[in-house]
């Protein structure tokens, strides 16, 4: 690190990034010859199917896809998400005001309490079991 900069106490007090720690543990186990079945963050262990590659290539050539999406997500994307929830869980969602597009699940998990939980509130985490 540049000697002119010091990390803040807030930064120094943060725990290690959990997925980095898991990767280190996995790497050490693999060095010892352990054959691992990863149930972690969804890293593929097989090639992406060719039809998906072809669709990605086709979509990347479309100039409409050369800009950022709206921050709130496109209505077509949110409609497909709502349809998936209906098919998968039997839950009806209004894509206009009940579906939120995120850049990743960790973003939503981290920002949700900042947006909806006040100091002193009591809350509990839960998982949607599928």
Kindly describe this structure:
The chain is mainly α and 130 residues long. It has 2 domains: 8-67, no CATH class; 69-118, no CATH class. Helix content is 44%, strand content 0%. It is built from 5 helices and no strands. The protein has helices at residues 9-12, 18-31, 50-61, 75-89, 105-116. It is extended and about 45 Å long. It starts with 8 loop residues before the first helix and ends in a 14-residue tail after the last helix. The mean pLDDT is 86.
Secondary-structure topology with pairs:
Layout: H1 9-12, H2 18-31, H3 50-61, H4 75-89, H5 105-116
Low-confidence stretches: none
Discrete helix count: 5
Largest sheet: none
The residue fraction in helices comes out at 40-55%
The general outline is: extended
Structural class: mainly alpha
Q: What is the element string, with H for helices and E for strands?
A: HHHHH
Provide the domain count.
2
Count of beta strands: 0
**Strand residue content:** under 5%
Report the average pLDDT across residues.
86
Radius of gyration: 20 Å
Features:
mainly alpha; 130 residues
Q: What is the compact description of this entry?
A:
The chain folds into two domains: 8-67, no CATH class; 69-118, no CATH class. By secondary structure, it is mostly helical. It has helices spanning 9-12, 18-31, 50-61, 75-89, 105-116.
